[in-house]
Amino acid sequence: MTATPTRRRRGNAARPPTRQPDTPPRRRRTLLVGVAVAALSAAAITTVVVTGGDDDTVLPDPDRVAELEQQESERDVAQVEELITLTEDTHDAVADVVGELDTALPPDGGSGPVADSDTVGEWRDTLADVATDLEDPPSGSSEYNVARTGLKGSIDLLVSSVSAYDMALDGDDLDPELTELASSLRTQAVNAWSVSATQLDLLAVEAELGHVHLYLDSVATEDAMAPDAHPEGVHDEH
After folding, report:
1. How far apart are CA 75 and CA 69, in angstroms?
2. Which of 33-42, 129-138, 203-212 is the most confident on average?
3. CA 149, CA 195: separation in Å to the nearest integer?
4. Exposure of 133 in the CB half-sphere (CA atoms within 13 A)
5. Taking the model in full, what pTM does it have?
6. Residue 195 belongs to some domain of the structure
């Protein structure tokens, strides 16, 4: 019996592997240029450091360090000047509110002449304007942040004091508990302002701008910090 030859199917035939085309010369040159540029960029970055001794210790470039320190010092002085100006511009308005609160809220726990709703509204408006001026402070040194944040906190306490007093007016007679709360918040506000004023004075002296005394005169300053004996504008350190 004659064997029938098996016909090989074309679809099962092994195909030779496809050869990937070589990277074109232009592309290779592009890759090499990219590597070279990256290497040059890294070299440029490392120019801000120098090696010291034979152990290849990497040290900061002293000239660059001095430049950065000078920039930071100039920024700090500019921020202190800005905060002094801002505090001077708002001081009198805040002092007027505190003075009128002192009249309405004597420190002995009693109550003075009753302020009307229009006066209370004026207090609110004044303090709202000051609070807006103190919002969104720039990033500064820790000492600067303490001074500016303290001023803002003092204003917030005064706003709360005015709100408590306003609620105490809701009736024929002043509510004694709310009046006492308003008085306590007023005192806390004056104390907080005095701490910030002291910090601002220190900053001004360190920046060689002279002493700056922007404290609040109030009947509620028994526990508040007081200005030193140095005349304003004097550069002597504390």
Report:
1. 10
2. 203-212
3. 11
4. 20
5. 0.71
6. yes
